[in-house]
Write a structure and sequence with these properties.
about 80 residues; SH3 type barrels; alpha+beta
Length: about 80
């Protein structure tokens, strides 16, 4: 496993361990409009989490295995 891939897997695992129902997350992928976007974690299961972003009307289900999302999420708490 390459160093970058290994770091990505370890970062995601560490992030998942800190996500809790009722907690907050921050999404930041560096693009305008995607910097420091906060969400409340509505529910967590073994595969992912349902969140409500402050700037969206609908909830979103994010799989923990979805690196496109998880590489840019950090717990806010």
């Amino acid at each position: 496993m390459g160093l970058v891939k290994h770091y990505s897997v370890m970062k995601i695992a560490g992030t998942v361990d800190r996500i809790r129902k009722g907690g907050r997350i921050v999404y930041d992928d560096g693009r305008p409009g995607h910097l420091g976007v906060c969400a409340t974690v509505i529910d967590v299961d073994g595969n992912g989490m349902t969140v409500q972003f402050e700037d969206r009307a609908d909830t979103s289900y994010i799989k923990f295995s979805d690196k496109g999302w998880m590489n840019h999420i950090e717990p806010a708490d």
